[in-house]
Each structure stands twice: as structure tokens, then as C-alpha cells.
């Protein structure tokens, strides 16, 4: 029986929470999977960046599904029955909004449903983190809300919070791509001690703000010194866009994940903030699209049969 899965976009780091903080957003990719019946793999991709997504065994969704089949001891079904996978992308590809996390989480959940849930949720979380390499996008894609997560002694720790009430998100998606591996190469091998202390302080207080549901405090703390200063040269217009967004009333504006998208947070004035972000990118001759989103309370949707 075929299955259908909906997976939210995510924004990681949220400023100082590097590789630790992540939030689900109200923008979704969908994935449908069924047996092809002929032992062959067939993948169809539509939507944003469809031409960039491989339709063979290197496809991220397929590789995630394959992991579930292997863990469940059902790998022979892939060659005996084959898979037909249909993917529709609304989440921009390689723009810092968790597109790879949607593929990994969607593939894991779809395969687990097709095999009648042989793997526990905890096992799926562990597989997702292993495939992605870090937890900050896959965990909010799974649990929704704002998630603080990390891997300690090979164990994945996850704490979910509800997003502060009234939070609105304005995302500026520039018209160029930035691969995560490229963005990570810009990071230095060592940091000033004061900068490390700064981020520990801000990230810790952000958890306190989440516990209290304090939006103003949460956003006030989104000042990073570990990654954004080093990634800024890779995102022309970033500094001005953030400045203009704050002047337009944003409570905070930061790099979304590894970029190049920027995300601003507000309670009101979203249209003006979006225009300000675009103005910043235009100052460097770059066009951008604006997405008006909200935090997504739910992560990957319960799979349902394809009608």
C-alpha cells in the first residue's frame, strides 16, 4: 500500500545556537511512495529545484528509505518489488531551509510506514541524525516547534519547545545557491575565547526565553559570533539586509541555517520587513523572493494511503 508524507521546512541555528537550535516552518514538501511492482526504481520530482534532484539511487529520499529497509531486514524487497517515489518540493533547494532534512525525514517515515512500523521513533531519529550529519534540521522536521538537540556519547538528546506566541517569520530567499559544505569551509579552526563565552551565554538564555515563551527576549538574544561573521562574505547583501530589516521593525534577523537565505522575526510589519530584506540584497545586485511563514507546531505528518 502506498503512503504519503508531508515534511516541514526548517531553519537552523537561530543565531547563536549553532548546530543545536532549529525550528519548523509552515512550508512543506510532500513525498509519496509505493511499490513499482517491477523491481525497478522510479523517481519523479516536481516543484522548486526539481532539475537539481537526482532521480536514481543517489537520491536522498531513496537512500533514507533504503536505510529503513536494511535496518528492518527487508532489503530484498527493494529488488523484488521496486519503488515508485514521487516528490513535490516547495522548500527551496540548497538555500538554508532544510531541504535535505525534508528528504531524509520523509524517506525514513515513508519507508517505516510501508513496512508497518518496524523501527521505533527513537531509531528513526538516530538514523536521521546519522544521515544528515547534525541534528539541528532533522529534529524540528520530526517534532515541529523549536528544538534544541545534540549528540552526546552517540546518543541523540532532543528537547522540544513551543514557539513563542505571536511569532511571524519573514524569509528572504536570494537567487543563488550555497551548499552547506561550502558554507562550513568558511568557518575558522579556532575562535576567540570571548566569542565562545558570548555564544554560550546567548544560547543558554534563549532556552530560558523559550521556557517562558518570551518572544522579545528570545529574539533579542539572536546575536552570533561563531558562524555568521565568517559566512557573511559568502552572502552578498547580508549585512545591509539585516540592518534594513531591523530598522523596519524586525525583532531579529539572522542567517537561516548555513544560508544564503535570511530569516527575520516579528509580530507585525511583516510586509515592510520583507521589502527591507530585499532592499539589502538589491544593494548587491541580487534578487530575492520573500516567504511569509509561521512556526510549524507539527513535524512530519502522519502517513496516509495514496488515494
Automatic annotation (TrEMBL):
Domain of life per record: Bacteria
Subcellular localization(s) per the UniProt record: Cytoplasm
Membrane spanning residue stretches: none
Reactions mediated catalytically: L-homoserine + ATP = O-phospho-L-homoserine + ADP + H(+)
Metabolic or biological pathway, per its Swiss-Prot or TrEMBL entry: Amino-acid biosynthesis; L-threonine biosynthesis; L-threonine from L-aspartate: step 4/5
UniProtKB keywords: Amino-acid biosynthesis, ATP-binding, Cytoplasm, Kinase, Nucleotide-binding, Threonine biosynthesis, Transferase
Annotated EC: 2.7.1.39
Keyword Nucleotide-binding: yes
Binding-site residues, ATP: 92-102
A family per Pfam: GHMP_kinases_C
Gene Ontology molecular functions: ATP binding; homoserine kinase activity
Stretches assigned to the GHMP kinase N-terminal domain: 59-145
Top class in the EC scheme: transferase
UniProt GO BP: threonine biosynthetic process
GO cellular component: cytoplasm
GHMP kinase C-terminal domain boundaries: 206-281
Family the entry assigns: Belongs to the GHMP kinase family. Homoserine kinase subfamily.
Summary of the function given for this chain in its UniProt record: Catalyzes the ATP-dependent phosphorylation of L-homoserine to L-homoserine phosphate.
Name of this chain's protein: Homoserine kinase
Organism field: Effusibacillus dendaii
Gene name of the record: thrB
